[in-house]
Amino acid sequence: MSISTLIWILLGLSSLAYYLGLKRALAISGGQVRHLHSLPSYYGYYTALWCGLPALAFLILWTLLEERIIILAVGASLPEELQNLPSERLELVFNQVRTALSSANASEDPVICAAADRYRALQAISNRCLAVVALMAAGLGAMWARRRIRPDLPARNLVEKTLETLLAASSALAILTTVGILLSVLFESIRFFELVPATEFLFGLNWSPQLAIRPDQVGASGAFGFIPLLVGTLLTSAVAMAVAAPIGLLSAIYLAEFAHPQVRAVAKPLLEILAGVPTVVYGFFAALVVAPFLRQAGEVLGLTIASESALGAGLVMGIMIVPFVSSISEDVIHAVPQSLRDGAYALGATRAEAITQVVIPAALPGIVGGMLLAISRAIGETMIVVMAAGLTAKLTINPLDSVTTITVQIVTLLIGDQEFDSPKTLAAFALGLVLFVLTLGLNVIALYVVRKYRESYE
Amino acid sequence: MPNPPSTPAELSLPATQAVLESAARDRLDQLPAAIGDYTVPEPRLTCRGVNVFYGEKQAIFNVNLDIGQREVIALIGPSGCGKSTFLRCLNRMNDTIEGCRVEGEIKLDGVDIYHDGLDPVILRARVGMVFQKPNPFPKSIYDNVAYGPRIHGLARNRTELDEIVEDSLRKAGLWEEVKDRLDQPGTGLSGGQQQRLCIARAIAVNPEVLLMDEPCSALDPIATATIEQLIDELRTQYSIVIVTHNMQQAARVSQRTAYFHLGRLIEIGPTAKIFTNPRHPLTEDYITGRFG
Ligand SMILES: Nc1ncnc2c1ncn2[C@@H]1O[C@H](COP(=O)(O)OP(=O)(O)OP(=O)(O)O)[C@@H](O)[C@H]1O
Ligand SMILES: [Mg+2]
């Protein structure tokens, strides 16, 4: 029986259990629902939960462990000489067995074939056991719950408690994933720092992670100073903010203070679409439209602008993050109490004076928060810079030159066939960690600033 | 200006539902102009036939009222009767409300304030306003008071500005409390101090008329007493229109009192007379506390 059929059957059983519980509750109440602690339907849910949840938990646990146990059993049945192989080689054998499972890749080797057959047989048995045990758990759970139904059983509280636990478990899952990502990046980074000293990485001015193919080649170890990448990242982000901050803020002021409500209702979502355009598309735009345009403009002005430049990438990235600035700024400007505007108008302030001297200062912390979020977005942006900023690490603050960024380097480091534990590959994780810390820090500050602002107006 | 006949639908405000039964006998729509003399010898502001509409809904009906030099006039009446709406007409703050329309004639020193050529910005410098809830700007105490003089260019240099700020804070009775912390944010003051700061801010531009919409409703009795005393002192220089729900306050600070009911001016006269000898039954009901 496949897992999905089993789940469907469990669902069916649970609904059955709901009716059993409901009927039981009605029966013991003797038609007087008031005598029950909870509404009858809660007794139904209570029974259904007892029917479904233990069986489901069992099912999940079983599927997680099944593969490992079967492999152990298959391993025990392998011939002696294979069993004594070192564990990595043994793992290879198991991989062969796994591929041989699908009939299309049937193996030549009779040993592997036999192992695959055994695997299949064990899996069939396991499946059958799982079905029987899960269904039994469901039945027993339902029956047990049904027998426990008494008028004074606090079914509503129990059901609510269970649901609350489920909700908490979902959010815990999301948080744990973040922690897991951080930890995996952290561990790989630690391995990197065992190969390359952290001081060289953090303060080195030279980045060329090209490793030698042969050990005797010159420059075998590469250089892993990440300062040029940091400078490149900050440069493109600065260009982006130079575009996004004024455009975003001014459009926010227009939308919040001047635009007719109907204009606003249309313009705001339109602006927010900018944030929804896939960044690859912005990348095309940067590489195919903006970069050539900049180069030509540069020729007219007598400037040499590289075909891949921080300026081009930054400009397009700026357009991309305009909605981050404008949307949040618009919200906070809108949230400035009308009483402050009235206060300014009542003193004879013009609209411009009220906006620039009262509304904007009052909204400033929120606006700053929005800007910080936009910056962290720009720092983490990958596709546009990959396509438009360049690949070679140069330590420069000239926006007309090509630069490379942390994200670009992570991409290039992980492309191609590399040994997984070479410093070159591990460097990607160290860069990822730096990026994570950088954007996390900015986000925390931004959230703090925004919350502070919220507090000051109720 | 002819009054549109009032229909039951127009009067069916939840807040005034209870009033309706007793109001029915008075046949509001057939009322003549307000009881009492609404004119004064040397008026600063004259309002004639003022109607105010929020969209289709009329909130003020044909109000005639004069506001004299150096007097305090109190506007009283049940909630929703249009006191704030009328007050806001006097410095055109209603302009900022979408769909609000004002008809009739309001003159400040003989000049129609709704005349096309008149800039509301200049009008509001001459007719200041203090709001129900203190609304200091998120700036320092000094900058709060200096805001008006700055935008109107009233001070030629820093010393003059300092003088204006100190003078306004003194008049508002706040100087002693804040003189050592002028650079701290105005939002950090107590509610009563904030309201006095807002009064100081309003008088710093040296207006001729001061409009106050329930300036003490958020304050404790002591802060209220301070502000009432302040109003009494300010009367020597300004005309003050104050909206209040507090009968004793109206009796204490004002020389004339106007009673509003469902958008109409019902009775107007010297405060002492209104409170001791009201002529209209609605006024009597209100000030004796039978509703409101
Ligand atoms: N912005 C607005 N849009 C539409 N109707 C409004 C608006 N402001 C006030 N009104 C209506 O106009 C009428 C008068 O309101 P106003 O605020 O002037 O009453 P008020 O006498 O000041 O009441 P309160 O004593 O509660 O402050 C009310 O019926 C109110 O619902
Ligand atoms: Mg009011």
Please tell me about this protein's structure.
The complex is a heterodimer of chains A (458) and B (292). Chain A is an all-alpha fold and 458 residues long. Chain A folds into three domains: 3-153, no CATH class; 159-195; 221-453, MetI-like (MetI-like fold). Helices cover 78% and strands 1% of the residues of chain A. Chain A has helices at residues 3-29, 40-77, 80-83, 87-101, 110-148, 155-195, 198-203, 227-258, 261-276, 279-301, 310-335, 338-346, 351-380, 383-388, 406-414, 423-456; strands spanning 207-208, 223-224. Chain B has a single domain (38-287), classed as Rossmann fold, CATH 3.40.50.300. Chain B has helices at residues 8-11, 17-26, 83-89, 120-126, 141-151, 158-171, 175-178, 191-203, 221-234, 247-253, 271-276, 281-287; strands spanning 43-54, 57-68, 72-76, 100-108, 111-112, 127-130, 209-213, 239-243, 256-261, 264-270. In chain B, a hairpin with a 2-residue loop joins strand 1 (43-54) and strand 2 (57-68). In chain B, helix 5 (141-151) packs across helix 6 (158-171). At the A-B interface, helix 12 and helix 13 of A face helix 4, helix 5 and helix 8 of B. The complex binds adenosine-5'-triphosphate and magnesium ion (MG). Magnesium ion binds next to helix 3 of chain B. Residues 83-84, 213 of chain B line the site of magnesium ion (MG).
Which helices and strands occur, and which strands form pairs?
The complex is a heterodimer of chains A (458) and B (292).
Chain A: H1 3-29, H2 40-77, H3 80-83, H4 87-101, H5 110-148, H6 155-195, H7 198-203, E1 207-208, E2 223-224, H8 227-258, H9 261-276, H10 279-301, H11 310-335, H12 338-346, H13 351-380, H14 383-388, H15 406-414, H16 423-456
Antiparallel strand pairs in A: 1-2
Chain B: H1 8-11, H2 17-26, E1 43-54, E2 57-68, E3 72-76, H3 83-89, E4 100-108, E5 111-112, H4 120-126, E6 127-130, H5 141-151, H6 158-171, H7 175-178, H8 191-203, E7 209-213, H9 221-234, E8 239-243, H10 247-253, E9 256-261, E10 264-270, H11 271-276, H12 281-287
Parallel strand pairs in B: 3-8, 3-9, 6-7, 7-8
Antiparallel strand pairs in B: 1-2, 1-4, 4-5, 9-10
Helix pairs in contact in B: 5-6, 5-8, 6-8
The structure holds adenosine-5'-triphosphate (ATP) and magnesium ion (MG).
Adenosine-5'-triphosphate binds at residues 13, 54, 59, 79-85, 97 of chain B.
